[in-house]
């Protein structure tokens, strides 16, 4: 049986430099997109511990749910704010395990990956030129010498948005906690503080491994009806577990539901739930 730990796994997903850039067929993106707008396959790079007997690690499910849109690439010109999301893995027996993922961007240091991205842009631009260059005898269609040569400034700005000699390439990466209960706020704080420690110019008080070890092996699940306070990298983290006589744990901000769906849609959903209609939510 489960020993009642706060978290079962710490997972890192991202770019496997040995595999390189593999198109992500599940994302539905097509090759008409510029290379920076395409998605590529992400991999589970590491997990700690390797396996726990009460919660076998599902690498395919965790990898897909940690980064559902695959790898994303950006340059220094793009916004690269970290994004947090949660997910649930439901097994055949109905049992659930919860995941919390913080996705951020880090600089690509592999010259092979940068060169591969540059090659994809050369190929994309060449294909665009073939499809959109006017016939050579149609001189009236050329508004300038640059347009006739297929190197207009607007086209260069649109399609040459990555230049290996000029731009810095960034790729998405995520850190994730797999837990037996849905302590969303606490997990978000843990991940945000770990990310802050990695990106901060000053090292954290203790090695990062000690904080990960602590959350995996030393922080217990709070008993029903009790709260738990433990130390993060930069400050205390608190979570509370409802008692058996209270409503089940729901650690998500209801405000976000109204922001995403609007008041009228929320009321309609609530009405459908009371009338026992089947409800399907569809999103990207």
Automatic annotation (TrEMBL):
Example GO BP: retrograde transport, endosome to Golgi
SMART domains in the cross-refs: DENN, uDENN
Keyword Flavoprotein: no
GO cellular component, one term: trans-Golgi network
Keyword flag Heme: no
Record PANTHER family: DENN DOMAIN-CONTAINING PROTEIN 5A, PINSTRIPE, ISOFORM A
Name under which the protein is recorded: DEN5A protein
Protein species of origin: Nyctibius bracteatus
